[in-house]
Specification:
This protein is α+β, with helices and mostly antiparallel strands and 857 residues long. The protein is built from 27 helices and 25 strands. Helix 13 crosses helix 14 and helix 25 packs antiparallel against helix 26.
């Protein structure tokens, strides 16, 4: 029976349920989109390209491991954890000998993969593999490993001499190259010009290389460029005739037992080939979880407010039900069933819309470089089902929570209370609001002591949501207090419309609070998203700017500045010091730290990281300098020994020589350049700092054999920091864009519902002598008052959170808030508020007043 009543109620009050339906549908779409990211990170397939013809692949372990054993109450618990390393780990070539003679093993093909970027005439230095195709990285290989794809020569011949080169057909077509042409390649060494002797293409039965460009060198030249004596990237294992892949894999694993080598087959080969795709899976899991969690919290907050407003609009109807003997349980059941029906319909449509929405956002992530193209997006029924379940449960819970008060009032009071808003919120609501306010304060205090970005970022957005929940619960009290202040300062002085707006604010504080809450969330969340990264970037730029003593900086588009360019500059007259800077990420235990390698000779003449303990004057190959953050976390001081894993997983133990303050600008760990460069995929310097009294033109003349290297002023380091910060800001804004869009929709939705319920009120005002223009002016005054209150509260929330973030990350209670950007946020919120108020208001005032007063609810 209740289900039938619920269906009839929804059909009769379509407009009243429309707001809740839109909010729930958007929530389901968000949850579905985030769920696809999470599932892609967990189950996404990375298809192999380069190793398509090698059914079994032997590679080095790409993780660092830690095993802990705990003994408690006579039981032993063994816990194993693994974290990926930043660079490619290499295998000893001798491991291949263990596979000789293994049953089922036909051919063992060693593979070398190294940086080899073609510098195309007219495309600009560093244009990448092809005419400006920066999304297709280029790698060099020895021609002897072409069988792993397999590649076949389709024009010309294989490379024999050191200056011979075979390119793939994709590069030949894009750059219009043919056998006999010359091509300059920037590899791990100085740029070198090769003669194209052949063009190769994968076997016709295999797919072409879609996500990379392959350049093949002679075996000796490939070994020189890889610069890894006695090591290989991987071994491709081809079976003998009649041997299955499973049998081959088992035989290879048995032969390599006792070594750290990893054996892969099938889809397991893709992560070995595309390391960035494997790392992106971890990033997608964390991103999907963070976005999904934030989306769910925002959705619950918005949906509860929407249902509360919807039920508030139906107080008269529900009071009549109580007056004719409906029990509280029956009222709650009716509202619960209505919510289930609306939630199921909205969840179904929203989850279907979330699939293309997730695809659109996934494409944007791919374009920005967050997700590599080699990671295939996974779409299954699980995210939509989870979205529908979450939406239905959220709608039911929101309706039941919102119905508690109306369902519990005595029948004799029902009709009277339906006409007048309760003077104050319930003590339970106030207590819950104070609880969330205390929780928000605790999160802000915790945020002020967090000093790493991965730890502080989720707490930052969680603090905004929790404080917005507190505003939602305490909203009637806040609106009533703000209304008194606004009335005294402004509204009472603006004539009859201002006094009417003030009366509505004070007399309908709960309704106005429902409109304030999404605006607070929109302004607070948007300001936080927009200003978190600029706060961090500004501090990093200031540290980098203050820490560079050099006169000039060398930069190069593409992979970087080759060591030979720096060496040539050191030998030039008038050059005092040349410091190469190469960047990487290392692991201390399982913790990840940004690190850099710098040239020790003359270091203090070009670089000042603000040393607070120790000295850099005797910095050498076995030494390390650490930031104050790393020193605090790891308990280090000058003279301490630090064991770590370099970028490719190689263990190293170094002596701490100095502790410095400018960790944001220069990374947490600093080692000798040669040590770091030997253990990274790209050993070219990101920047080179030069101390010299020579002019820019004179230095450029010394480097004329390196046309891609540019001589710039020392503030180029500052510019590079800004570019890195902008990239992170774009990712954060893209990741939170859906949440912000949903919040903006909620603002329009809530304000429109709030206005549309006031048809009878507007009619009475018209009958009492108010003109249509005066009523609209009153609505604008109310909307501006709501905007002022929301701006004050939202800005206060954002300022508190950003200040705590700044204290923790930079040590300064001075977050960066760009005035024009802040003004744009407030203006955008104001436009939404005014539009969502004016348009429904005009529609509500269109019928005749007499008609509106006699209309059925």
């Amino acid at each position: 029976m209740m289900l039938g009543y619920a269906l009839r109620t929804i059909r009769a009050r379509k407009g009243g349920f429309l707001g809740a339906f839109v909010a729930l549908m958007c929530a389901a779409a968000l949850i579905t989109a985030c769920g696809t990211f999470l599932e892609t990170g967990l189950r996404g397939t990375i298809r192999t390209e380069r190793y398509a013809a090698a059914p079994v692949l032997v590679s080095a372990d790409q993780n660092v491991h830690r095993t802990t054993v705990k003994h408690k109450k006579g039981k032993t618990k063994v816990k194993h954890k693994a974290k990926p390393i930043a660079e490619r780990a290499w295998l000893p070539r001798a491991i291949g000998k263990r596979l000789d003679g293994v049953p089922g093993v036909g051919t063992v093909v060693p593979e070398l993969t190294f940086l080899a970027e073609p510098l195309l005439p007219g495309a600009g230095a560093g244009a990448g593999a092809g005419a400006g195709d920066a999304d297709r990285p280029a790698y060099g290989h020895a021609w002897s490993s072409a069988a792993l794809t397999p590649f076949k020569i389709i024009d010309g011949r294989a490379p024999r001499a050191a200056t011979d080169l075979v390119i793939d057909r994709g590069l030949a077509d894009r750059a219009r190259l043919a056998p006999g042409d010359r091509l300059t390649v920037q590899s791990t060494q100085a740029p070198r010009t090769y003669r194209v002797t052949g063009i190769a293409a994968p076997d016709h039965r295999k797919a072409a290389l879609a996500h990379q460009t392959a350049l093949f060198f002679s075996a000796r030249e490939a070994e020189r460029l890889a610069d890894r004596p006695g090591q290989v990237t991987a071994f491709g294992v081809l079976p003998t005739e009649g041997t299955s892949v499973d049998a081959l894999r088992a035989a290879v694993k048995k032969a390599l037992r006792g070594t750290t080598a990893q054996v892969s087959s099938g889809d397991g080969r893709g992560p070995v080939e595309f390391l960035d795709a494997a790392g992106a899976r971890v990033k997608l899991v964390s991103m999907g979880g963070a976005m999904g969690g934030t989306s769910l919290l925002v959705a619950v907050l918005v949906v509860v407010g929407t249902f509360a407003l919807s039920i508030q609009q139906r107080h008269r109807e529900l009071a009549l039900l109580r007056a004719v003997a409906a029990t509280p349980r029956q009222v709650r059941a009716l509202l619960g069933r209505e919510a289930l029906l609306v939630g199921a319909a909205a969840g179904t449509l929203g989850s279907l819309a979330g699939i293309p929405l997730g695809a659109l956002l996934y494409g944007e992530f791919g374009d920005s470089g967050v997700v590599p193209a080699t990671l295939d997006r996974v779409v299954s029924v699980f995210p939509p089902l989870a979205a529908v379940a979450a939406t239905v449960c959220g709608a039911w819970a929101a309706a039941r929570l919102s119905a508690r008060r109306i369902a519990r009032i005595r029948p004799g009071e029902a009709l009277a209370e339906a006409r007048v808003e309760r003077a104050r919120p319930s003590w339970a609501r106030v207590a819950a609001g104070l609880f969330f306010l205390a929780g928000g304060v605790v999160l802000v205090l915790v945020l002020s002591v967090l000093r790493t970005e991965p730890a502080s970022t989720p707490v930052t957005f969680l603090a905004v949501v929790v404080l917005a929940v507190a505003v939602s619960l305490l909203g009637p009290l806040l609106v009533r207090g703000a209304a008194a202040l606004l009335g005294h300062l402004l509204l009472r002085r603006t004539g009859p419309t201002g006094r009417l707006a003030h009366a509505n604010l004070r007399g309908n504080a709960a309704r106005m609070a429902a409109a304030v809450t999404p605006l607070v969330l929109l302004i607070g969340m948007t300001c936080t998203v927009l200003f978190v990264q600029p706060t961090l970037t500004a501090a990093a730029r200031a540290q980098a700017r203050d820490g560079v003593r050099a006169d000039w900086t060398l930069t190069a588009p593409g992979p970087g500045v080759p060591e030979q360019a720096a060496r040539r500059l050191r030998a030039a007259d008038g050059v005092g010091a040349v410091t190469e800077v190469v960047r990487t990420t290392v692991r201390v235990g399982l913790d990840k730290y940004p690190a850099q390698g710098v040239t020790p000779a003359g270091l203090t003449r070009t670089w000042d990281p603000d040393v607070t303990a120790g000295t850099l004057t005797s910095f050498g190959a076995g030494d390390i300098a650490v930031s104050e953050l790393a020193a605090d976390q790891l308990g280090l001081a000058p003279g301490s020994r630090l064991a770590l894993r370099l970028g490719d997983g190689t263990p190293a133990t170094l002596t701490v020589r100095a502790v410095y303050a400018r960790g944001l600008g220069f990374g947490d760990l600093t080692m000798a350049h040669d040590l770091v460069a030997r253990h990274v995929d790209n050993p070219l310097a990101a920047t080179v700092l030069v101390q010299s009294d020579r002019t820019k033109e004179q230095l450029a003349a010394v480097l004329k054999k390196f046309p891609q290297v540019r001589v710039e002023s020392a503030d180029a380091v500052d510019r590079l920091q800004a570019e890195r910060g902008q990239s992170s800001a774009d990712v954060n804004l893209l990741a939170m864009g859906l949440v912000l869009a949903f919040t903006a929709i909620a603002v329009v939705n809530t304000l429109a519902m709030s206005v549309s319920e006031r048809v009878r009120e507007f009619a009475l005002l018209r009958l009492a002598g108010a003109t249509r223009r005066q009523v609209l002016r009153m609505l604008r005054a109310e909307a501006l008052s709501v905007l002022l209150i929301a701006t004050a509260l939202g800005s206060g929330v954002a300022f508190a959170v950003l200040t705590a973030f700044s204290v923790g990350m930079t040590g300064s209670a001075a977050p960066v808030a760009l005035p024009l950007l802040y003004a744009a946020v407030v203006a955008g919120a104001g436009l939404l508020a005014l539009a969502a108020t004016a348009l429904p208001g005009r529609a509500a005032l269109r019928p005749l007043p007499v008609t509106m007063t006699t209309a059925k609810e």
